[in-house]
Design brief:
The protein is α+β, with helices and mostly antiparallel strands and 167 residues long. The chain has three helices and six strands, in the order H-H-E-E-E-E-H-E-E. Strands 1, 2, 3, 4, 5 and 6 form a six-stranded antiparallel sheet that branches. It is globular, with a radius of gyration of 24 Å. 23% of the residues are buried.
């Protein structure tokens, strides 16, 4: 019986010392002065098949990861009433996707349009790369984008962008 107790104590000591060592390593790894590498959200290998249209994305179940194909037609901040469909673009917190590019000669904003807002505030590198305020050349460009289907700007939208590819 004494050997069993000694064995149990030895095993517990080994486990506890292993836990302490792990905690110390974990704390050392959380050094705020360390440079964190940027994530690469773009991918040349994103297949252009199996992407949802804007209308299909609007109907997808909230909370699921979805892949959407659309055109970047506007920038937006705070609400859809602030959407800028033409330059100068103001606001870098969201872009709006549509099924087709905007035709300026005959364009009128209609709330019934198939519009799909994309939140750009979750990751600073995605925001820097996709917002129209800083990147007006992206206006009317096609994008393939993956993220979490959510309610955003009081519409079905996309948050937590994981991947994107601009055509």
């Amino acid at each position: 019986m004494t050997k069993a107790i000694l064995f149990t104590v030895a095993v517990c000591a080994a486990i506890l010392s292993g836990c302490e060592k792990y905690v110390v390593e974990e704390e050392a790894g959380n050094n705020d002065n360390q440079e964190i590498p940027e994530k690469d959200y773009t991918s040349e290998d994103i297949p252009e098949t199996n992407f949802l249209t804007v209308a299909e994305a609007q109907a997808a179940e909230t909370g699921n990861v979805i892949c959407v194909r659309g055109y970047i037609v506007a920038s937006c901040t705070k609400s859809m009433s602030n959407a800028d469909f033409m330059e100068p673009f103001e606001g870098s917190t969201a872009i709006i996707l549509a099924e087709e590019p905007v035709d300026l000669e005959d364009f009128q904003y209609d709330t019934d349009d198939n519009l799909f807002p994309v939140c750009l505030t979750d990751y600073k590198d995605v925001r820097a790369a996709l917002n129209l305020e800083d990147n007006p050349e992206l206006w009317n460009r096609q994008i393939f984008i993956t993220g979490v289907k959510s309610s955003y700007l009081r519409l079905p939208g996309l948050k937590k962008v994981m991947h994107y590819q601009i055509k």
